[in-house]
Amino acid sequence: MKTLTMKRLSTVMIVFFLLSxxxxxxxxxxxxxxxxxxxxxxxxxxxxxxxxxAYENWLWTFENCPTLSVNTYKNGxxxxxxxxxNTTGTEQDAAKVLVEKIxxxxxxxxxxxxxxxxxxxxxxxxxxxxxxxxxxxxLLQKSYDANPEEMGIKAIFKYFEGIIERxxxxxxxxIFDMNDNLQDVVNNKMDGLSHKLDKLRELxxxxxxxxxxxxxxxxxxxxxxxxxxxxxxGLGAMLEKYATCDRLIPLYKKDCEANSNxxxxxxxxxxxxxxxxxxxxxxxxxxxEKYVNADPSSDAYVFYAGMLMKKGDETKALEYxxxxxxxxxxxxxxxxxxxxxARMMKNKGRFGQARSYAYKAVEARxxxxxxxxLVASMYASxxxxxxxxxxxTRMVYQAALNKARRAKAIDPSxxxxxxxxxxxxxxxxxxxxxxxxxxxQSGSPWKIGCWIGETVRVP
Length: 459
Known about the structure:
By secondary structure, the protein is mostly helical. A two-stranded antiparallel ribbon has the order 1-2.
């Protein structure tokens, strides 16, 4: 009897578990089906920008189907931020909590899908809504750790502010290092966008008309480049207070021997000393030699050649400049070195050679606006010597103005800087009254002599 009872019980249990599994499978199938229905319903309203209508079905999907699609979170942030923007009081507080929950849940279920971007957006939302500085910085740190190239423009500024605040009294080197890291991030992003923009510009210049999508992308790339250009300049400005020759040289002297074979440290140190104009003393020459010995690369050769020029060995300097350019295969990096050579030539007063290298930089990178600004500045500084009379001097400024305008046209990242050049040169170029008084027809050619040797149109 006992054996029969146990056998019946076992049978009943087996049947129960089989039925339970069947019920669970059916329940799961029902849930999956409803997830898809609710998801499609809210997506339809979302695409029509009916965010209020989309809310209920979106919320159900968000709470019950966390791994259905990353779009649940992308669209949910738009919906929740719409609610936050259009409510007040306790409703707005609830919307804020919802936005936070969306960010947290997305990072939980999709930790490898643009986590850097999500932490960056999350941080800036919290900053905007009054969160404390440590909370915001902690999120920005997570963004940087996940992928610094996904950080937003404002987030990069905010993060560097936090780095400065935490290290200004006891670790200046950390500020310099992070500035270099963030500048690398910004430059990489700018290079990527510039490359895409160059391709679109090539299409236009070949006579092809951009389609709707390409026109949109051109505008988006230009806008982002303008923003990144401001970040690049802003990071440098934030460091200005700390990066002085009086501070840099003792700091680098202290760490120089320990970093004799540290290529990254040497490269950054040499570059910063050069950019800050701390190149007159023997220490700069010493650190350049260490750099070129540790890393006989294009970048090192450029600075080594500059050091040789400073010492008067121009023949050998030109040899190393050529080595640097010939060694580099990446056209954008080649443009960077050519531009650095152009700057060095300008500083030595070799304007003709400087212009030649600047134009080579543009050949390597068609969107190299700084190269045109360098030429513009040399034209302007030569206005009195290359201009023939008052009107001739103004026409040299016209030539400089043309280069500044060209710089702005090809490189959105330097728009703000180019505008300063344009404003300055416009005030010195010939006015309509000047042209009339000179008795010259607008649009007629005007030959500028001396080293410039260029013909420009009378405005």
